[in-house]
Amino acid sequence: MSASLNIVILGGSGFIGRHLSNRLLGSGHNVIVYGREAFKSPLVLSERVCGCDLLIMLAGANVGQRWTKAHKQALWDSRIQTNQMLQSALQLCEYPPQRIFSASAIGIYPESDCTHPVDESCEQVGDNVLGQLGADWEAASRALQPMPLIFRFGVVLGLDGGALPKMLPAFKLGLGGPVAGGHQCFSWIHIEDLVSAFEFALAHPQMEGVYNVTSPNPVSNREFGQVLASTLQRPFWLPLPEWQLKLMFGEGALVLTHSAAVLPTRLEQAGFRFQYPQVSAALQNLLKPA
Prior knowledge:
This protein is about 40% helix and about 15% strand. The chain has helices at about 15-25, 40-50, 70-90, 130-140, 165-170, 190-205, 220-230, 240-250, 255, 265-270, 280-285, and strands at about 5-10, 30-35, 55, 100-105, 150-155, 155, 185, 190, 210-215, 220. The radius of gyration is 19 Å and the shape is globular.
């Protein structure tokens, strides 16, 4: 990319936002990252986003923890209310952003297994809380103008955030094993491929609508765990039953038991190529000795 763009990332102080801002800065763009402080009012928010070339909306509370009643409400508020405020802020802009990229998640899809994956052509919404959250989130995103490009993320793998650091302590102690039977499908993406997908979309302004940002090779929870244990040269044997997950995470256990076999069909059709399409190569890259 030759031209330097002015890019604003909202909700960009977390794991994905850090990697994304670093990559975009390294590519020569001007990047400003805002957290919750930008959402004081529509007027304050409009002052942050008006006139930028690209607005990236990543705001949303973490689903990967225990769901108390308060946290479950935060899952909705941090996605719906922030987008509603952003909609109001954009209406105040004399010069709105030229493009908007919005985050979503593959939890919006109905459950699927690894032998029958789904892609963006699936218009059904999952009949559970993850499906409803995704549907409400994307409805709020689609109300924005200009209409955003929506990225549905799989489980993002990196060492400084997301799910992998939470798994590593048990696996390093040799206590890894299948979760809730291990048959549920696990759609994942290496953090570097996720960031590359944003750069790819930035370079292809004709892209619009919804894109799954997942590896083209989903695996079962059992296979993922076996590869992780093998990469760490540890055994894989201690099962974690569903009842124990519910004690630990409450309703949030659904994040770990939900089976999602999701393919990035539209991204690949657009010409994107994954650096880490296989889970073994992804984990070897992340866990190789420094």
